[in-house]
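Hello Y.,

Per our agreement to keep a running log of every chain we model this quarter, I'm adding this entry. I've kept the format consistent with earlier entries: sequence first, then predicted structure.
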Amino acid sequence: MESGTNRRRQGMRGRRIAGGQLAQLPWQQVINPYAPLQALSGDQIEAIHLTSMRILEELGIEVRSDKALQLLRAAGAQVDFSTSTVRIERGLVEQALASAPASFTLTPRNPARRIRLGENHLQFALVAGPPNVHDCERGRRAGNFQDYCDFVRLAQYFNAIHLLGNQVCAPVDLPATTRHLDTYRANLTYSDRVFHVSAIGAGRALDGVRMMAIARGITLEELAREPGVITIISVNSPRRFDEAMTEGLIAMAEHGQAVVITPFTLMGAMAPVSLAAALAQQNAEALFGVVLAQLVRAGTPVMYGAFTSNVDMRSGAPAFGTPENAKANVASGQLARRYRLPYRTSNASASNAADAQGVYETEMSLWGAVLGHGNLIYHAAGWQEGGLTASFEKLVLDVEMLQSMMEFLRPIVVNEAELGFETIRGVPTGGHFFGEPHTMERYEHAFYRPLISNWQNYESWRIAGAKDATQRATEVWKQALREYQQPPLDPALHEALDAYVEQRRTQIGSDEP
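Predicted structure for the entry above:
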């Protein structure tokens, strides 16, 4: 009879499926079992917190939404309507934190792909937002709907990707006012994962909420009790919530859907050049968004978002995957845990290609995110060119890194069978363990089997074509698209989605001047 340890080992290992399909790890809920890294002392965290409170109380946040200003004033905030500046006291922050959940669950149309955000759970998201796409065969080009759908298919195919970001690339071949309807429908048709809805205005957010409810065959009230979509509110740092994002936040919170408050604090540009000051500003902006979400609907699932990195001080260009970025990822996790909030972070790179720079910068920020106990790692697969391009090859290289990280996070088993004393006794000095029963019982699933890495000797590698990792990644994404299988969706629900899209397309068209 197979032991529980062996069953677990086989369930966690990458494997090559019959028929020559790609080796990958099975779908799983990733848990970070290690203690988080403490980059800052308790006193330092408190100093950042107190500075953030001074920012909120003395300097304030600009909010370009009359609805939000009225809501904040009714809650006791000091509102200057002439400048749209809001100052809030720390008591209001504490009240909001008391109602914000420490963790929550998002349920997509397939309940088996439900994800948990918070505690020591870790979820990886597809890249989101680039206006361009790239692969090594067709080159760099403007985002388009066909590529968009292919990225969604790849996200569905690779088990290491847990949720879809907001428009993996901008499909500029579709009308700007209605393309979100097409991308939401693609998310729900070609994937059964949780997806991110756009919060650029209440309308786009509500369309995503309603379409998820349709795909699950439930009411909006039921969806509010069991949320299924998420959005990111990007703060226009320094200290500004624009009208569209604020209205999107309010719409999501009114319907009980998850909201991630993420300041975009690039040190030396949108935030001070020192990391401590940037963290204080980021912290104030994130907490303000939490307050607003909880005022709209107490108990709204919210996440503490962080996107603090630096710029190249010689050119002003954004830099990612830097030591400063990695340290910010760790320190931001400490701040999120201080407030008992789930934590969103990112692994990013400024490289213009799926090359060594793209990998080592991504790996640097990924380690910071994991050591900082991030719960949602956004842009985890496919980010290139500082977020201006979604790359097919980079997606595959990132999946390799994510799978390697998942295996690293798998706890070491120490028991009598694993210690293997009798096996060690049975092999003479200078012998080998290749043919030992202990090895033969475990060899097939003993170690992580990589998706991209090539371990041939030099001569064999040359005979096989001498392909580097990026070239092998091209082969992998093409094979993945060939092997992709569309997840089933009830025809009646599919028909209801189509009807909703056409109805909203007509409504939006009639509203245009």
